Amino acid sequence: MPKGKDIGQLLRPVRVEPLQAYFGQGLHTLGLLNWLLPQTGKADVWVSSYSTSEPFLSGFYLLRQKGFVNYSAILLDQRAARKTLHLERLLSAAFEHVLLGQNHSKLLLVHNKDICVSVVTSQNQTYGARAESTIISTDHRVFDCLMRQFLDICGNGAVELDLKNGKGIINSD
Known about the structure:
This protein is of the alpha+beta class.
């Protein structure tokens, strides 16, 4: 975060402000999830990113341990597989489904029976001092559109990894 500020100073609660944007330094994906999930309550979470990091996966695992995550899936780019698969133990602890595909998007989809939240961001799940952009929406049409397209990417050429059982690729559908 920018020095001396927290997310609550940058963004309003999602139930109060259904569409908001941020452009600047310091708003990281994990921090955003830590801010968002207490607002939504236990939810299903789908994550899309070019690559991920140990701090993000450790933090996501802690969110799961705190009871904020019901179901989770992550889609990462197959070109970044060498970089991210060394984190296979954390990936399998944090996510039920780990998929590799042609992906450069950075997306969070959070859903439960009461609310759906779509987050489109420029940031990979890493930390740095560069400016990033983020748009947050609670519009069901936006969520439905992005979820359909997320599933389409996962179903067209992505492969699912079975990291828990060490069996490699589960399927290519």
